[in-house]
Amino acid sequence: MAVVIFGFANAQDVRYDLKAVSDFASTKFTHANVSGAETKTGIYIGGFADPELFRKFHLRPEVLYVFIKCLDQVQVLSNAKYKIFDNSKL
User: Fold this and answer.
1) What are phi and psi of 4, to 5 degrees?
2) How far apart (Å, rounded) are the C-alpha atoms in residues 58 and 36?
3) Tens of pLDDT along the chain (90 residues)?
4) Cα gap 67→50, rounded to integer Å
């Protein structure tokens, strides 16, 4: 799907951007008088394109590399954006 959007976006006004996020999560548990805690730090790195498909409608494909402790994966996402007014986004 992202390939089709990128191909269609060549004729449109497209904005490209990079994204980097760090995530700090902790969990605590208690079961049968045993308790513990664990902390995980994660990193998300990737980029996205923001093509304007129609006058007020954008479809934003995104590719992220996710690393959380022993988990490595690539996520491919797509978000829709609709401009209600000229300077607002939903």
Assistant:
1) -65, -45
2) 45
3) 444 444 554 546 788 999 999 999 888 888 888 889 888 899 999 999 988 888 888 888 999 999 988 889 999 999 998 888 877 665
4) 24
Residue spans of alpha helices (H) in the chain: 2-9
Helix (H) or strand (E) holding 9: helix 2-9
Q: How far apart are CA 18 and CA 80, in angstroms?
A: 18
DSSP element (H, E) containing 77: strand 71-82
Torsion region of 69: left, alpha or beta (phi above 0 gives left; psi -120 to 50 gives alpha)? left
Six-digit token string for 62: 């995104």
